[in-house]
Hints:
Blueprint: E1 6-8, E2 14-15, E3 27-29, H1 42-57
Antiparallel strand pairs: 1-2, 1-3
Amino acid sequence: MKTLIRKCVNCGKYTMKDKCPECGSETRNTDPLKYSPSDKFQKFRIKEKEDENNGENSS
């Protein structure tokens, strides 16, 4: 599936065009999302984040 949003290689601006409207250089498809719904390790990341937050609150 092709994504609609693209990122400029040169200036880093996001656009939906093949060429950046700001600097005129080529754009590329953005990277896929960081987490997927079928992520096997999601529960471990959530647990680690909760542990970090609980540790900060008790200081």
